[in-house]
């Protein structure tokens, strides 16, 4: 029988996992940028204390996936869906989808109306997941990331 992943809220227990799971995919495809270092090395101060949320996916009590809702600096958006990383050894098990659905539900429970995300077109599995979650491509939003070449939004409620 397959073990099901479990999604839990972030705590300091998962601080290193949040950083390493993100650094793993960023360093595989891109390079670490200053904006990454800020949020990954200080998630409490830069995400949680500002009203954000971080979820951790556990498989047999081991953190194998993470994702954050960061209060958005862009007008019209409540949160940015960001810092989603799934360990290569756990990819293909639906963990990204489970995390994504959890984050959308969490954003709704926090009263969010619109989510925003940034990605890169070479991350096709991630883009496919975002599309399945209901995100659509948008244009015209500036990004602090060199690697960002696509922005997407998800409307949760009509204003």
TrEMBL record:
Residues of the signal peptide: none
Domain N-acetyltransferase, first and last residues per copy: 16-157
InterPro entries referenced in this protein's UniProt entry, alphabetically: Acyl_CoA_acyltransferase, GNAT_dom, NAT_camello-type
SUPFAM superfamilies found in the cross-reference section: Acyl-CoA N-acyltransferases (Nat)
GO function terms (MF aspect): N-acetyltransferase activity
Keywords: Transferase
Name of this chain's protein: MarR family transcriptional regulator
Species this protein is from: Flagellimonas olearia
Top-level taxonomy: Bacteria, Pseudomonadati, Bacteroidota, Flavobacteriia, Flavobacteriales
